[in-house]
Amino acid sequence: MKRIFSVIFILILICGTVQARTHHRGHSKHKTSDVEQTQPTEPGAAEGTKDPNAPVTPLEISLTKDKEQLNRELSDLKKTAANAVQIKDERDDLKVRVVNVERDLQQLKRENQTLKDSANQDWFLYGGGLALAGVLLGFIIPKISWGRRNTWGSF
Fold first, then answer.
1. Among 14, 60, 83, 110, who pairs with 55 as Cys (CB 3.0-4.6 Å)?
2. How do residues 63-114 score in pLDDT, each as one tens digit?
3. Cα 108 from chain centre
4. Which residues contact 123 (CB under 8 A, 6 or more apart)?
């Protein structure tokens, strides 16, 4: 905001300087000084075709360049300000998208944790089933007779 005010201030200053200069040159009753009479002219320019508003001193030239630069910046700012509504709409859409993506991320994290817990639970079930099978086999195998008879009891 300070930059905009400084740009406007400089433009007003430049416009005031240019207006004062053209006003001063426009009146013939003002006596011109020796400095104004000996101002350098552009090479190849005839006295009759010289623009009365053309910058003559280095200060005026630099002020003119600054004015042109500020005019370019002002036009850029106007373009940006014209697109402000579009930029705001895009920002709002992007905010909604960010919220949706974060919600999806949290849901995927929960599903991932559920799948990890499920995989761990499956391994515990496999281990428990194997232990139960071992206990059952431990009780059943000793009860089975394998066909050997005790020959000591036949006497």
1. 60
2. 999 999 999 999 988 888 878 888 889 999 999 999 999 999 999 999 999 9
3. 27
4. none
> What whole-number distance in Å separates Cα of residue 67 and Cα of residue 13?
10
The closest alpha carbon to 73, from 144, 148, 4, 153, belongs to 4
Residue (of 55, 64, 69) closest to 25 by Cα position: 55
Structure tokens at 45: 């320019």
Compute the distance between CA of residue 52 and CA of residue 136 in angstroms, rounded to an integer: 115
The helix or strand, by DSSP H or E, that contains position 141, with its residue range, turns out to be none
**Contact (Cβ atoms closer than 8 angstroms) between residue 73 and residue 7:** yes
Domain ranges of the chain: 90-139
The reply to whether the predicted model has a pTM over 0.70 is no
